[in-house]
Structure formats: structure tokens, C-alpha cells
Records
---
Amino acid sequence: MQITIQRDGRIMLEEHNEPERFLDPADPYALMAVLRSHTVFEEGLTLRQLMKAIRPWRQSFGAAGWMDFDAWLSEIDRTHLTTVTTDDPDIDPLSHLEIYNVIDIHRPDAGHLELSSHWDFHAYYETPVESCGTIAETCSVSFMPARAYANLPIRIDYKATVHDIQAHYLDGRRPVLRTSAPGLYDHIETDAAFFDVVVLGLLDKISFHGSPTDTAERSEGLAEALEAVRARVETDISASEESEACADDAPSDVTEDDIFEFLGLGDQNARFEAAIELRDALKCVGRLDAALAGKLDITLVGLMELKGDITAHLTINAMRRTTEIIRQHIAEANNA
């Protein structure tokens, strides 16, 4: 069974080789009867068009998604005369929205996997944006005004993103997905049921901070907090420049690490730096260096995966230990 949500607001049902038909918006149970159906979006369908298509059942799905459906639809529907992008200088232009599936893998003990799955959504930038030393292609719209994304095309990514960060080469635990090993699965696709994708993955996430008014207030509060951090940094920089001639000048109260921690980017930047150092070290070794593989206690396939930048399963400390072993190996080879 499959439903296709169309741009004209109709929802088409295909079932057991029967003739295609459209759900009756006057039937309060029509969409409730196909909650587990595979869901497809007509190409170009926007968030505004999607919400208007399911409006006849808004009471049921608003409650299921913990959402004030009418308030959000009113906010989003007011954008129908605006362009896809926004002229707000603080918001980078976006190209489309994407609903995606995430599979989290936990390994409480050897030979034991625990899987959990959830749907979420984010926006894609028209042009990748540099932020805190990294290049970002996607962003959250949690605190953006509705005009920034209401008329963007919305798509479903049926290929799941697998978070398997507890798999460590050095501990002998292999990642679930190994793209560089021939004959093994390189991705996992999950069924996109309407309730999981639209109700939980979209409606519940849009209204995570409450109504449009609540979301706007939280956004303003966050902006004020960030502005306070910027003000402190500018004040400390000015004070530092005025007294830089003093050798015993006290350090600034606010450091770059403080800012990263405030924004939740500390681990992200440390991980990025560790991955870059590991990549640079690996440039100097061959893909089939059996001696190095032995020192790392991994197979040659594992070494090939490291050379291919497959490091998501390694912790920051594991990447640093691996980098140090590689550097020692290179130094010993140069001295031989």
C-alpha cells in the first residue's frame, strides 16, 4: 500500500493492484486507515502544500504530533505570496527540506547490538556555508521564521543514516556498514510510513519549541544570549589589546573554547581536528602496509577503510592514538 501526497492537495492511494483512488477529505478516518502506508511526495511538493493536504485530519495528527496544527498552518499559509528564499541577511538561502531516517546503534557488550530508529528533517543550503572551520551543507530550521522554509520543496531520503560510533577497529568491533569492503552492504533503506515520516519526523519536530509565537520568543532569547557572548568577547579583545604590552596580563575570561562549548561545538571541532591530523598522517603510508596494520591491530581492509576517511566509528582519543602510531611508524621507516 502506498500513498502519494500531491501538490494540488489530494492524496492518492495505490493498493493491491486495485485502481488508483484519492482519499476522501470528508471521511475523518480516511488517512487514519493508511498510517502505515509507504509515503511518497510528488516532486516539488512544499511544506505549505503538504500541511494543507492533511488539514482535513488536523485534529488527529496535531494531537499525535503534539502540535497546534491550526496555529502553524496559519503561520505557514501566510507565506504563499513570498518567494522561496528570504531577504533576511541573517539567514543563508536554502534550496529544499529533507526528511531523513537515523538508525542509532549501541553496543552494551560484545556480540550485542541495540538498534533504535527515528525520523527528522533539516534544510539544505543553496550554497554550502562555512561555519567554525567546517563546511556545512545542511542546517536546522528550528529557530527560523516560517517564511524561510514554508515554500521550499520537501523530499524524503529513504536511505538511512547509521550512527555506529561505538564500533572501534582497535577493540575489534567492526562497523555495521563497510563501504570499502566488496560484497557487503553499503547502505540501508527503511520504509517511509506516513505516521513515522510526516507525523513524528515532521510535525512533531516543527513544533518542538511550541507554537509559532513560542518558537519566535525562544529564538529571540537565543539571539540575545549569543549577542551577549559576542559583546563579552569584543570587550575582552579590546581590553587585551590595550594591555598587551604587559607580560603578566591576565587572560581573557571568555575563550574560544568557551564559545564553542556555549554553542555545543566543542566536541565537533576537536573531532574535526583529530580527523584531519589522522588523514594527513595516512597520506604518507600505503594502502597495503601490512606492518602498519599489525601495529594498529587491524586488517588490511581496515587500513584501506582508514585511508578512505572512514573514521566515524572512532572516538577522538582513538583517532589521536592511531595518528601517533602512524607517525612513529613513518619515523622508524625513514630512519631505517
Note: The chain is about 40% helix and 20% strand.
---
Amino acid sequence: MGHRRAFRLRSRSEDEVRAEVEEELRYHLERCIEELVARGWTRTEAEAEAVRQFGDLDETRIYCARESMRAKSEERRTMWWDD
């Protein structure tokens, strides 16, 4: 006799995924900015440098959101097969 899962992971909407990606990017940018300021950069210079070092933020947002949604889809498919 098969066992069904006692709970399901809540699916996240695309908007929720995008918000999580944005929060994560902000976190990493802020850490970089803080490090640069601690090394003597002005806040404005540090912000510009952090963005420069990070690269294309728009492309990174798209990539991270797409990968997160792909992983979630794969997780749901795996749970379906397990059931």
C-alpha cells in the first residue's frame, strides 16, 4: 500500500519568485557596497562599483528567476512521481 505525503510544499508564483530574486540581489549588492565603503569609497562610488562588478543586473534577474522556476517545476514533478 502506497503512502501519500502528509504535506505539500506551497507553490510560489512568478511574482513571488521575482521578489525573492530581487531581495537576494539587493542583499549581495548591499554587502559589496558596505565592504567598499569600509575600504574608504564614498557611498555613491561604492554603489556604482558594486553594480559594475556584479554585471548585467537585468539579465541576472531573468536568469535567477528562470532557474528558480525550473527547479520548482522539477521538484513538483519529482513529488508527483514519488506519490
Note: The radius of gyration is 19 Å.
---
Amino acid sequence: MKKILFDFLTLEDSYINGGALYVRTVFYNLIKEDVCLYGLCKNENKLSAEIKSIIQELQIPLIMLQGNFVQTVNAEKFDCFFVGIAQRYNIYDLSKINCKIIIVCHDIGDICRYKASIDRNYDMIYDFYKMRNKKFPKLRCYRNLMKRIAFDKSFLGITLKNDKMLNRFGYDNFSKLLQKDNVYLVTVSQYSKYAIEYYFNNISNEIQVFYPPVVERLNTAISKEIENLSDSNKYFLFVSADRQNKNYWIFEKAFDKFNAKMNSKFKAVVVGLPYREKSNFHFIERVNEMELEYLMSKAYCLVYASTSEGFGYPPIEAMKFGTPVIAAYDTSIPEVCGKDILYFNPIYREDLYFKELYLTENYDYYVELAKDISAKVIKKQTDDLRNLISYILR
């Protein structure tokens, strides 16, 4: 029986994100195997009630991520230590752990965006939307800009050399780990694999690519607000608008023009930003897992304008319901979604405006296409989950 140490630190997240859902789904499938499972966490009180229940039912011992935890891990003589999100451990030196380590790096979007100087183009607008409901938003935006200039030389047209950049973004321990013979890196797309290879040297073992699994969502209640919203007007959906790389500002600008041309036929539902009054827009700051899935299933379209993705769950999750997607032609998204969905350049709002109009003229075609694309990707996700579990246990 294999003795596995599992990353519970990632499961301490209190909000929905693709990385945590990935790790949770791997956990649900790993406990079905004949394994002796331990957990590594920092604060078990932050784990969800469901995870705590499973820990208690299966009597999974926990090792706390504090003090000399490396010595404790080595003393237990594990066959494998599974790390679900590499960046959660950037501040820890895992290089002295003796057992096999499988570490998942979904993307290095922070590095890629820095090298492309994307943030200096978007930060002011992003901050303005984020600060909109607070007092003195412009003042706060300018203050944040000054902080970024002090931290990030790319604002001045200067980019750091690789070694200095990795140090600035806190990847020193990760870089050192990749050079160890007992460390095996897993990522979620070919794009992410080659992005990692581009910025990190002397990687000891071949990077493995497994698509992230189909998410096993918790059966949470759907509020009346969400039900009523979904049963009313046709709406374009935008999710995770509070995350800078999701590129929300371009959606709002393009949708205003598009909907004016359509005589306000549509609404926009935006998840991730605080509620504010705006014609034909409905803002929802937080939703639970089933509410998010429900919104996707009822949407007229999902707009996914992200400027950096390792995989990108939302387009595939939306398309399984036959919901068409307009996505940025960027990073991993074309690799995962294929060539046949509607893409736009995430810099040009007029391109998104054009694709929104084009979708309304060819809607039924893209509904059927969405189902076909999703079915193919979901099959690979299912196969790759089995491959990942085998990789952990071998």
C-alpha cells in the first residue's frame, strides 16, 4: 500500500478557483484507491466542512506546515508527496524532502504578464473598476500605480533578467526544487509546459501534461436571486471579474456598444465585482459552486477575455451546457478550446464588439459546436485524471 502525503494547504482557500477545485477533485479520486493517505496543511480550521468530514471518517493524519515540518515528513517515509498548486509553497524550501514529489504548476502567468508588460497597460483601468464603490477611487488608483512603479520596473520600460525576475516573484525555492531528481513536475497544458521550460533552467525530469479533471462540484443551494436572474432576459456572462488577468474592462466597454446597437436586448451578468448601478448590468460579488454552474447553463454566452491562462475551466464548463463562448485568443485557450469557437484579440475592444454581433447572427451554429467541443475536452480530462492518479501511485 502506497503511503501518500497530500497537499491540504491548497484546500484552505475560501473562494472558488480552478486550482483548488482541481486539487479537491484529485483528492476525491485518490481516496477511492488503496492508499495510506496523510495530509499537509497550515490551518485545518480553514478546511471546508466536507473535507473535515472526510478526514475524520477516513482518519487521515495531518502534518502541520510549521516549524521543522520537513524533518517530520522525512521521518514518515512517504512514497510520494503530492503538491496541487506549486505557488502555494513558494515560501517553503521543499528541496530537502527525500520522497518522490509530484508538484503541479498550472501556469506562471505572473511571470509571463510581467515579461510582456501587460500589467502596465491594464492596471489603472483595473483598479478603477475595483475601487469604484469606495471613496476617492481615482486617488486610490494613483496611489496603487505609484506602488507598482516602485515595485515593477516594467512600468519604466525595464525588464529584469531571468534570475532577478524569479527572485522578485518568489520562485527561488520552486526553481531549486525543479533541479532535484526526485521532483516530477506536472502541468495542465502544452502551453504551460513550454512557458515553464522557457523561464526555468535545469529541470531534472520531463514535465508531464495532464488536463485538469472535470470538476466535482459540491451540491450547494441556489439562491432565488440567481434563479430569478437566470429566468429573465438573455444575458452575457463574465466570471472572476475581480481578477486582473481576466481583463474585465474590455468586456464592459464592448458590451455597452454592442447592446446599444441591439436596442438593449441583452443584459450582462458580472460575477466577482461589488454591486453598483449600471444600466443593463447585474453585478454579483460572490456565488457558490452550484450558482456559478447554474449561471453558465442559462447564459446566452460566456465571454472569457483572460490575458493569461494555464488551462481555463470556464469555457469548457459553459460549453457542456451548449452555452457559446467568445474567448481571448491567448496563451492556453486556443489549445484547449480548439479552432472553432469565436476568438477575439484581448487588446481590442472593437474585436470583441464584432464577435458579439457575429454570434447573434450565427447563434444556433455555435450552440451545437459548443457541445461537440466540450465533449472532446471532457473525454481527455477524464482520461488524464486516471493517468494522473496512476502517476501518483506508481
Note: The two ends are 11 Å apart (CA to CA).
